[in-house]
TrEMBL record:
GO molecular function: RNA binding; tRNA pseudouridine(55) synthase activity
Function statement: Responsible for synthesis of pseudouridine from uracil-55 in the psi GC loop of transfer RNAs.
Organism the protein comes from: Humitalea rosea
Protein name: tRNA pseudouridine synthase B
Domain Pseudouridine synthase II N-terminal: 36-184
EC code: 5.4.99.25
Positions annotated as active site in the UniProt record: 51
Length: 316
């Protein structure tokens, strides 16, 4: 049988991360497509969706960096958002239609008193207009078709939720630090309800995704080229391993690395004195390092070090 013809991928192969300061009014996938065309790159994905209304840190993964996207999405995220009291919207943000109103406006003290139950490990119902799948379909597609969407509450982790500023009686600005999969629109909606009123988000900015900071972000406009202008330089990309910088490091010998590379689980007893304090003994990840070189990722579980992904010795 003749070998199957494989079409050569279009575009230039390049690996690394680029942090975009996403503009409002544009979906995350639209940003990916524009950047992919600008760089003429083979493969680009994003490390954590931002709503069209939102602005700020949107990490984009090129080539081999797409393998590290799950670790970026699991990382700590920081946001600022503005909550407008008095109107509930079907999307829980200002892009939606008004579905309920209230004349109640909470005081600063009432807001601060209502915040503690929203910190720590909480249960949260995602917005009806979200990418959650229900019976194989996206919730936002069902909602747009007028179908009643019932989404089960899910566990979420909110490490910080604080009132920052009160521009006027109708508005309040908050600072949030959270884990994976926390919806700011749900926080805003539920806080307003807890205060005896209704509300929705009118502004949302993401300041951090794990090691990707607002200070690293470049504007989308600065990358868009036209005419005979050459595409942006691949030198703008951060190393593939940047997404893993927040994962604690564990030094390994050549022999240990060889065993882990071949998928062998090892007792944590062998690593006593080297296990980083910040690594959770039950389910925590560590970066296995040989000097400055990243070898792979392992998980601590049941007193064992379990290989999870081998990276092939990339620069750390």
């Amino acid at each position: 049988m003749a070998p199957r013809f494989q079409r050569k991928p279009k575009g230039v192969a390049m690996d690394g991360w680029l942090v975009i300061d996403k503009p409002t009014g544009m979906g995350s996938t639209d940003v990916v497509n524009k950047v992919k065309r600008a760089f003429q790159a083979q493969k680009v994905g994003h490390g954590g969706t931002l709503d069209p209304l939102a602005t700020g840190v949107l990490p984009l993964a090129f080539g081999a960096a797409t393998k590290t996207v799950p670790y970026a999405m699991d990382a700590t995220k920081i946001y600022n958002f503005t909550l407008r009291f008095g109107e509930a919207r079907d999307t829980d943000d200002s892009d939606g239609a008004v579905i309920e109103t209230s004349d109640v406006r909470p005081t600063d003290d009432q807001i601060r008193a209502a915040l503690p139950p929203f910190r720590g490990d909480i249960m949260q119902i995602p917005p009806n207009y979200s990418a959650i799948k229900i019976g194989g379909e996206r919730a936002y597609d069902l909602a747009r078709n007028g179908q009643i969407v019932e989404i089960a509450a899910r566990a979420a982790r909110v490490d910080a939720f604080d009132l920052v500023e009160r521009p006027d009686a109708d508005s309040a600005i908050f600072h949030v630090q959270s884990g994976k999969g926390v919806y700011m629109r749900s926080l805003a909606r539920d806080l307003a309800r807890a205060l005896g009123t209704v509300g929705h988000i009118v502004a949302l900015r993401r300041l951090r995704v794990g090691p990707f900071l607002e200070s690293m972000a470049v504007s989308l406009d600065s990358l868009i080229v036209s005419g005979d202008t050459p595409p942006p330089s691949p030198d703008l990309l951060l190393p593939v391993t940047t997404a893993l910088a927040d994962i604690p490091a564990l030094a390994a010998t050549a022999g240990e690395a060889m065993r882990l590379q071949h998928g062998e689980a090892m007792s944590l007893v062998a690593f006593m004195g080297r296990i980083p304090n910040e690594a959770s003994p039950e389910g925590g990840l560590v970066r296995v390092m040989a000097g400055e070189r990243l070898l792979g990722l392992c998980r601590l579980e049941g007193g064992m070090l379990l290989p999870e992904r081998w990276m092939g010795g990339q620069d750390g």
